[in-house]
Design brief:
Layout (H helix, E strand, L loop, with lengths): L1 H11 L3 H22 L8 H4 L1 E9 L10 H17 L6 E5 L3 E7 L4 H9 L4 E12 L18 E3 L18 H18 L23 H12 L5 H6 L10 E6 L5 E6 L4 E2 L3 E9 L5 E8 L1 H14 L9 E5 L2 E4 L10 E8 L1 H13 L5 E10 L2 H29 L2 H27 L5 H30 L4 H33 L3 H31 L3 H4 L9 H4 L5 H15 L1
Parallel strand pairs: 5-13, 6-12
Antiparallel strand pairs: 1-3, 1-14, 2-3, 4-7, 4-8, 4-11, 6-7, 9-10, 10-13, 11-12
Helix pairs in contact: 2-12, 2-15, 4-5, 6-7, 11-12, 11-13, 12-13, 12-15, 13-14, 13-15, 14-15
Length: 586
């Protein structure tokens, strides 16, 4: 009988030392990682650190009087959110205000200028054939037009966005008296050459001269726009091509490698940004091109791209070039020598940030509406700091009350609860500091509230475990068996309770936006940490202390005094007392 009893005892006893060592190693490793990374404090949200608040107002598109609606505004908010998140900007709030306004709040410590460009840029991308081009502005000197050939793989090696140069037709200087006539003739000739049907548009989409030799109104208007366009003028650049539909020819501006502004007449759009499947910024180690943006087309987009490049390869300069037009501005104008398909590249003197920004906008799609900045204001952290101070005071008072209750009611057991709370606090702080650079988590006021609420959740787990132990002692068991018998029942209750809390936090995180998500995230994080602390610290520590005389003997200040708990006499002693009575009766 002795051997089985010893085996049962050994199997029932856990190894608390291993669990305590494991969690202490984890805390040490996380703390070391925090100091090694240099991020020793959590990142703060806009309400605590200050930042920039941008108000964007939607603009009516020509010919689309009902474009500003709830569906388009919600879509714009979603795209802006993804763009800003793609930059790694955390806690940025993007939400609608009224019918046509979107408010974007960007915390301090991030590149607010970069984020402003991301959220406000429409990012409508089109590939248009170049009909004619020349340097615009006072300096009419031109540089030779680069020619771009494809590699063996079907990838467009686009020319440098900063070296896009005028065509050979504009390589000589022109006098002011001849400018209007020559430019008007160039537009008419270019439209004649582009009057044949193309892959992405019909022949009727390009205005052509009438049979009598006179110029139709659409062509005359385009001639006038091209002649009057001065791309060295910022106001002209901002309005170039306004109101032009993708299926219509238009005028546009672009900058070449010499810093000169060029003006273009472009044909109908053959490939749109919606035909791009994915985009990314990569560094070209095989050439001096540096950073470039790669684009993979969809199946339909690849066919369109192959069709237009095949057509352009048969043309003479500058009509063998296509312009990559982003929000009305030509960012690149490569020439083509053969049909291309599959993917394309926009290469040139991009910085890493510029390439990543462009890829980010292409990847997440164009905004359904155009926006203008109505206001840009700087948000100070003064009000948030006052609220944080008040919140921390409230949290400290709540924590003090919890500790006071534990000391009065549980006495010696309160030491275990306080130690567990400290471990939970250390893990929470370290993880918040590490999650800032890792996933962009930023601490805001609602997140602080979530951490304060978690104090009660963690304390509740201790109370459940302690009360189960006391129930076992009331049944007449000694402390060590009581701890082992109480744990399975307490564990089940703790897991169910924490699961409900975590589920509520997850649902709240999914269905809400902005600062409320900070509350939900913190609540979910601290709930998970509660399980970790109870399993790997509280239970092992309780098992170890149960072997100490102070707790095992039921000292009045241990919180486990059998007399104070109203414990029953031991069950084994009761059976021994009844045995002689049964013998005498027999």
């Amino acid at each position: 009988m002795a051997a089985p009893k010893k085996g049962r005892s050994a199997s029932a006893q856990s190894r608390p030392g291993r669990a305590l060592v494991l969690i202490l190693i984890a805390i040490a490793a996380l703390t070391g990682g925090m100091f090694a990374s240099g991020h020793t404090t959590p990142r703060l949200g806009i309400d605590l650190a200050g930042g920039t608040s941008i108000t964007l107002t939607a603009k009516n598109e020509p010919g689309q009087p009902n474009a500003i609606n709830k569906t388009n505004m919600d879509t714009a908010v979603d795209i802006m959110n993804r763009r800003v998140n793609g930059l790694g900007v955390s806690e940025a709030e993007v939400q609608t205000q009224g019918r046509d306004n979107i408010i974007v709040n960007i915390p301090k410590g991030t590149n607010s200028k970069q984020a402003r460009e991301q959220v406000g840029t429409t990012a409508k991308l089109y590939f248009r054939p170049v009909l004619t081009t020349e340097v615009s502005g006072a300096d009419k000197s031109a540089t030779p037009s680069p020619s771009t050939s494809s590699s063996s793989k079907a990838t467009d090696k686009a020319t440098d966005k900063a070296t896009a140069s005028p065509s050979s037709s504009s390589s000589s200087s022109v006098t002011p008296s001849a400018t209007a006539t020559s430019q008007g003739r160039a537009v008419t000739d270019a439209l004649k050459a582009d009057s044949s049907p193309s892959a992405g548009s019909s022949a009727s989409s390009s205005p052509t001269p009438t049979p009598s030799g006179s110029v139709d109104p659409a062509t005359a208007k385009l001639q006038a726009e091209y002649t009057a366009l001065d791309c060295s003028n910022k106001a002209d650049r901002a309005t170039a091509g306004d109101g032009a539909k993708p299926a219509d020819p238009t005028v546009a501006c672009g900058q070449n490698g010499s810093g000169q502004w060029q003006k273009y007449v472009l044909g109908p759009a053959e490939v749109a940004g919606t035909d791009i499947k994915k985009a990314g910024a990569v560094f070209d180690t095989q050439s001096a091109a540096g950073w470039k943006v790669t684009m993979d087309f969809t199946s339909g987009g690849s066919k369109k791209f192959a069709a237009i490049t095949g057509k352009l390869a048969q043309q003479q300069p500058p009509q063998n070039q296509f312009a990559i037009v982003l929000d009305g501005e030509v960012v690149s104008d490569p020439s083509v020598s053969q049909s291309l398909s599959g993917s394309a590249e926009i290469s040139g003197s991009f910085t890493q940030t510029e390439a990543q920004d462009l890829a980010n906008m292409l990847k997440y799609g164009a905004l359904p509406l155009s926006f203008k900045e109505s206001s840009v204001t700087t948000v100070t952290a003064a009000l948030g700091g006052e609220q944080l101070h008040a919140g921390l005071i409230a949290g400290a008072i709540g924590l003090a009350l919890v500790i006071l209750y534990l000391v009065i009611y549980y006495r010696g057991l309160s030491a275990i609860a306080i130690a567990s709370l400290l471990v939970s606090a250390v893990l929470t702080y370290v993880l918040m500091a590490l999650l800032g650079p890792a996933i962009g988590f930023a601490l805001n006021l609602p997140a602080v509230c979530g951490a304060i609420v978690a104090i009660g959740i963690t304390a509740d787990s201790f109370i459940v475990f302690f009360e189960r132990i006391r129930d076992e002692i009331r049944e007449g068991r000694t402390l060590r068996p009581a701890v082992e018998r109480a744990w399975p029942r307490a564990r089940r209750t703790i897991l169910v309770s924490d699961f409900v809390s975590f589920l509520a936090a997850a649902v709240l995180f999914i269905v809400t936006v902005g600062k409320v998500q900070g509350f939900a995230f913190t609540l979910g994080l601290t709930t998970v940490l509660d399980v970790v602390v109870v399993f790997f610290f509280t239970k092992p520590l309780m098992t170890l202390l149960a072997r100490k005389k102070f707790f095992a003997s039921g000292h009045p200040w241990s919180g486990l005094d059998p007399k104070r708990l109203g414990a029953k006499p031991p069950l084994r002693r009761t059976r021994r007392a009844s045995a002689p009575v049964d013998t005498k009766e027999a």
